[in-house]
Amino acid sequence: MSLVQQIPVSLVCAAFLTFLAKHYIADFLLQSHWMAHGKEQATGWLWPLVVHAGVHGVLTTAIFAVFAPSYAWLGLVDFAVHFAIDRAKAQASRAVNATPSRPVFWWLLGLDQSLHHLTHFGFILVIAGLPLD
Questions:
Q1: Cα dist from 31 to 37, 38, 62, 101, 127, whole Å
Q2: b/e map of 7-20 (b: 16 or more CB within 10 Å)?
Q3: What is the separation of C-alpha 67 from the centre of its chain, rounded to a whole number of angstroms?
Q4: CA distances in angstroms from 116 to 4, 31, 119, 123, listed in the order given
Q5: DSSP secondary-structure letter at 101?
Q6: How far apart are CA 6 and CA 64, in angstroms?
Q7: The pTM is what?
Q8: Which residue, among 80, 63, 57, 71, has the nearest Cα to 131 in the 3D structure?
Q9: Using 50, 70 and 90 to split pLDDT, how confident is the model at 9?
Q10: Is residue 48's pLDDT more than 70?
């Protein structure tokens, strides 16, 4: 049986839409000015980033609690991955003086968002029943 035949499409679609909504909620609706700007700073960035990545981790834990409770611990992985991606983007942005008026800002933003969605894709595969080993 091929991998495509093993994966329940309706479950994948539901998980995809749930993670898409989670990302919108955590990155746009629940991210305060303090988080958004604080996590980008050269100093004082730790707590705003911890809180922001924590929101992502909590929401991912909630998603796994519904779809695959035994993998709810992956909320901690999402916290760590989101933290690392956002910190790397902030450092790269400062290194190249990325501002919204420069294309490099948008390239980095697009890369950041793509990496977050790739993380979600991995989580969706776990929900679909692909083993972690």
A1: 10, 11, 18, 22, 26
A2: eeeeebeebbebbe
A3: 17
A4: 24, 15, 5, 11
A5: T
A6: 20
A7: 0.91
A8: 71
A9: confident
A10: yes
